[in-house]
Amino acid sequence: MSLFLSFSFMNHFDHLPSEVISLILNLVDETCDLYTCALINKTFYKYATPLLWEHLDLNGHRTFSYLIDNLEASSSLRSNSLGEFVRSASIQDRLSDDELLAFIKHVPQLNDLSLHEATFITDDSFEHVPLYVPHLTRLYIRYSSITQLSIEAMSRHWYRQLNHLEFKRCTDLNYELFSALRQCTALTSLAISYCWLENYNAVDTMQDAARNVMALPNITSFCIMDPFSNWTPFLPITPTAQQLQQQEWRILPTLFPDDYFDNSPSTPITLQQQPIWPYLTHFFLGACRDLTDAMVLALIQSHPHLVDLGFYHSDMMTDKTLDAIATHLPNIVNVDMKNVTKITAAGIRRLIEQCPKLATVGCDWCNDGNIHPSDFDDVDPSSMEIGHTITGVSYVTRLYKFNLSITKVGTPIFSKRIDLFTFSVMLCA
């Protein structure tokens, strides 16, 4: 809300109780209005200053240099150290190791740190970050060259409370990072994308890494994305993905027609799945070239709370996976299939029909780009995202919030409305 205060009215603020001032300031939305409040009198300054410094969004090296100067100057005033108020920081600048340490040593109460351009951040600084900010609960870091040394320092100091961790394009990491993160049992959200973990100098294998990550008990959101590796072993199911691939008929047979799976045995065996992550709601895996329909069925049967599910680059999944999602995930909001070669427009239509809470469906380059706008000619074009091949052929990449009219044999055309909030998709690109 915007504040317009006359001088005479401001004089009365001297008599307001501090509790009332605090309540007023917590209702102020705009930073510029908080600055105005801080200039009213000493009491308003006292209560507005912590709110002004609580969340820092830094974009520009001059801004960062000015910030460090202010933190340095205030640190000599023990009762008014501005860094004590900082709880979260999002830094777009390309900091050096020295600059990161110069900042981090002044913000001991920091619990949320995002380093968007960490190109020059190495172990030389990051190994020491947990010592300066022992209460961190959320970390996002992109383009850094940190190694296992930093991961081990994080797990030693943050294992009790770190709950959200994301690495993007940190290419000096390898599979061993999961053995260190195994100690961080408070983790609920873990995302790793384009980090090229397949380092042949690492002791741990991909199978070791999968076992370590599945030992984390409280995961609700998991994403791993690297188009040049096959992450199927990271599918959180039991028995192992390899066993399911060899014996994919070991599923609950009564849930689908007899011809649901090709060459099904005459006497199927029921497989009872225990959830690896019982609180899982968001899951994205790619690439997963040998992921089958049966494996995905095992995942969704054992994790019925999923609302966001995505896979990248599978050559074996079919529309049967979409049918299984519609059957077993009543609260599904987002389905994101990318470069899944056997997904068809008909399968997507059935998914949309049967999922009342569905808000978005991603199908970028599914069926080798043969899902066309004409396959959804009864859909408002504004509800589709369209891509184009180099030859100019259009294909659908995403459908969302749309009116869909479906014609069924022997029945009149009817209209089904899906009108929900737009869901933020967990693509790790």
From TrEMBL:
Pfam families: F-box-like
InterPro entries cross-referenced by the UniProt entry: F-box-like_dom_sf, F-box_dom, F-box_LRR-repeat, LRR_dom_sf
Superkingdom: Eukaryota
GO cellular component: cytoplasm
Domain F-box intervals: 13-58
Stated name of the protein: F-box domain-containing protein
